[in-house]
Amino acid sequence: MRRSTRVIAGLLTAGVLTLPACGTTSENRGSAGGGQARADACTGPDEDYLIGMSQANLAEPYRVRMNEDIRRAAAKVPQFRVEFADAGQDNSQQVTDVQNFLTKQVDLLIVSPNEAAPLTSVVAKAYNQGTPVILLDRKVNGDAYSTFIGADNVEIGRKAGEYIAQTLLPQGGNVVEIRGLPGSTPAQERGEGFRQGIEGSQVQIVDSQAADWLREKGRETMDAILKSQPKIDVLFSHNDPMAEGAYLAAEAAGRAGGMEFVGIDALPIPSGGIKAVEQGRLSATFVYPTGGPEAIEAAKKLLITCQDVPKTQILQTELITERNATEVYNRENSQG
Amino acid sequence: MTATLTPAPERESDSRRSPLAWLVRFQSVLGLVVVFVGAILFSPTRDGEIIFLSGENLTNIVRAVSEIGIIAVGMTLVILVGGIDLSVGSVLSLAAVGSAVLLVEDQVPLVLAVVLVLAIGLGFGALQGMASTLLGIQAFIVTLAGLSIARGLARLWAGGQAVPIAYGSGRGEAPVAFSLLGERTFNGIVPIPALIFVAVAAGAMVFLRVSAFSRHVYAIGGNEKAARLSGVPVTRVKITVFAVCGLLAALAGIVHAGQLNQGSPNDGIGDELDVIAAVVIGGTALSGGRGTVLGTVAGALLLGVLNNILGLNSVDSNVQLVIKGLVIVAAAAVQRFAPRT
Q: How far does B206 lie from chain A, in Å, by closest CA?
């Protein structure tokens, strides 16, 4: 038995080493040739195209919605078939997902990176071998990609600040800020933009605490803030779920009536910010677009109509108040 | 339970010769073959060529499982002595952060940095082994605490954010040699992490063949009290095993940092579960005393092939989770009804 184990062990180790090695020589040549041939990926409207979409995670509603938007937009392009991969917040898994798409020789990649650095080299590999790459929401390092589509968090934060300073509190007042995960770029940028937006007004930030993007932490954080702050006019939260959590805390303390709640994201889903505005819990929220429809639009240009796409496409936000909440919700859900 | 246990000695002598028992003993290798053949059958094709079998894809699979596989070799030893190590995912992350900080921010020479990080893993594992054996706390509890401690240390060391690794000879850049971990050798075919995995596994198998240490490990897992009475240095062997597991988790962390060009304190979350899954699918009994490194290697590759073919077919990610869970249950079930060897 000992001997047989050893033999098998030897075989397996040898197998692991040689098996991929012998398979690869021919394949390598094949794929290099394929890359060359597809250096100009655009082959017009008569072809069918396979698009690989690598999503960082599907734990965030925003990203579920992004996939949904892509699926709907692609359904309107008969030449397009989209396959999705979910990396589950794992950088290694996302590298593997992109490699799988490359192995299948997809005609175009859409990637919403979990983090920039780990994805940079595999995205560059795809781009350099002639596969167009559309980056959504987060970039990679360097410029080896076809186009980046995302929103400007500083701009959104600034719009929120201006709205609070000019519309909600023209005479000035006390604002509490609930921030996203410390160290995350959107949290930094939304906070920075917000400060630009209220600059020069009478609005004061009386407290600012992080609740890591989470609804339950928003509630917990607000519980503590309510005890220390006797007068709060507006709560500004870096996303809608934390604003909703804060609303619950204020309501439980009997103080929700005298306060306005402003969030960001405005997802057009039943648990999202637009519904919260429509139902009167939030006063306003700002759309953080997923870029899904725009990505399919860019894919059409890159593959079918052979047009240039800009290297960077910044998406515009939209203010949601009770005036337009119902209309926007229906508009966003009627596409496709 | 008793019904299966009582006739065991008899069956064992029978099973030595029975080909069925032989198959069960190598269930994971067999399972790997089955999953491999299944993958070929279900593989998408392109111009009549089976995509799954392309060399690039096969090497991708070994690369993708290399980190889990390296740790699983250490975990096999820990489980063989009846222990468990839940801290490996956090130790991987701590080592990845350590590599990035030492190389990029502290400008420590490559070899020294690698040695330091490996020593941290070794030390961390040894401390867990000591806490478990000397204080008599269950390994599950000790390493659950270790999971938390190593994660906390990683976040503190990294300052809460991933430390990016750029390569070059300037200040704030890591030696270019470190980037080899993300590359391939032999004509750009074999990924370096896969080579490291194979080397670690082969080394462990050879070591377990030739050394008395191996007998001690199996003896402790079989019956710790009897092993102690017959003169096996139980405490020393157990501490060593935990230290080796920590060392290999750190090695995987170094590979991780090199592959992803950053040391992130949030990576490797849940890796311990993938590692334990590979070991269990590999036929190692969680109760200790029974199992092989070869089985674990096959178990890790089986998970890799499964992950790959599900990905190639773009199976819904939630369905993938269910399928992987079912495979683990199936592997454990085969073990449960296996004749004891």
A: 9
